[in-house]
Fold:
Amino acid sequence: PDKIKDASYPFDQAHADIILRSSDSVDFRVHKTILWVASSVFRDMLCLPQPSQSKDDECRDGLPVVMLEEDAKTLNFILRTIYPVRSPTIGGLDDLYPVFHTVQKYCFEAFEGFVEEQLNAALQREPISVYAIACQYEFDDIAQRAAEASLALPSVTHSQYLKQISGEQYSRLIQYHRDCVNAVDKVLSSDEWFATCPDIFFDGSPAAPCSTC
Structure:
């Protein structure tokens, strides 16, 4: 097993009353009261009768240890957000995606609207990734806007997040691109939109302001 490491301040304080241990063996000494307020899942967990400690790795320095599936980077971001300390720097989607999953999993109420805000912020920059994540979390309006933004790309580029959505959701994105391309081709191949307008000249003479189209 990995050697247990201690998280940095403020999650290394002796007055904490519970330890959250990350998947990569970093111990975060935190306070039950803050977890109670911030997360309905932890609130329910802390209400359950606590079993007697029988294993060495379930207790450290007299504090109960809760083993979590999340890594230290993700836990550090979330805990610094809910604690009264400087908020962590927000990175790109690759950094935020595990945070999205964790705040949904543990119902961190302080993050209400956080996922939507970050997806909207990244929409123009990474439309395919945003589309996939929005589909995964059922944010249909964001998925639609991301699909529209993806039209600026020459093709549907690869994103690691596409594997998180269904084949149907991916097919809808591909079909949307095809429909838009076909619509543009239809317009460009037809002269119907180039309606006759008496105020427009095509013989090289100056064009007067169009008053009929």
Notes: The chain has two domains: 1-47+57-112, 121-190. Strands lie at 5-6, 18-21, 26-30, 59-60, 63-67. Residues 121-190 form one domain.
